[in-house]
Amino acid sequence: MASVASATGGEVDSVHDLAWKGDLHRLKLQLDRDPSGAKRKDGSGRLVSHWAASGGHSEVMELAIEHGCPADEEDDSGWTPLMLASAVGSSSTVRLLLHAGVDVNAKKSGGHSSLQYAVSKDRLEVAELLLQHGADVNIADDIEQTPLHRAATTGNEKALGLLLKHGASVNVADRYGRTAFYLACEEEHVGACLLLLGHEANPDIPDKEGKKPREIASKKLIQGIGARWPQTVGNGA
């Protein structure tokens, strides 16, 4: 089969490029003529399903699955279609993949899951879908950070609220002993700190070096949190 210039650079088989572009009609013609294209990988180990997910094309994904394209395989970099669809925020594609029975808790290199990508990129509708379909709200990556850690680092209060609503563990620490509250303090996210404190975050859990959140907090942060801090707050910088 002839190759064409890819929207992402380099060359890929035409069925992959059509999937990326969302050209449903031409892709259907290609797959009807050559059904093996549904299971053919490009130079990066991606299937039609990966490119449909990257483009957020749920109708293309449905067509690919109908033609026998695997919906849960990793590409050469460890991405599954669900991870890609979650990262780009395509709720319709995510919903279709979940209904197809893909592994909602699969992890990429680094231990990152679809939920972690959705939270990191503020795809909260997708995150809600994943959680409703069995995503582990406390799933941890290779440095033992959960989605709550990611939301705290960016100060995303809506994401924090969603994760807490679904039972996220507030005081779990990463490999370096940092809780979500610690990270929110480190990045000076006042609103995130207040939200976590309202859900019983412990402000006195130290990291592996023995530093407590209140010891790394800036004066600005301490003032923003106000009376919610213990009265013995120490050396804000």
From TrEMBL:
SUPFAM superfamilies: Ankyrin repeat
InterPro entries: Ankyrin_rpt, Ankyrin_rpt-contain_sf
UniProt keyword annotations, A-Z: ANK repeat, Repeat
Superkingdom per UniProt: Eukaryota
Gene3D superfamilies hit by this protein: Ankyrin repeat-containing domain (1.25.40.20)
Ion transport keyword on record: no
One Pfam family of this chain: Ank_2
PANTHER family: ANK_REP_REGION DOMAIN-CONTAINING PROTEIN-RELATED, PALMITOYLTRANSFERASE HIP14
Protein name: Uncharacterized protein
Protein source organism: Cyprideis torosa
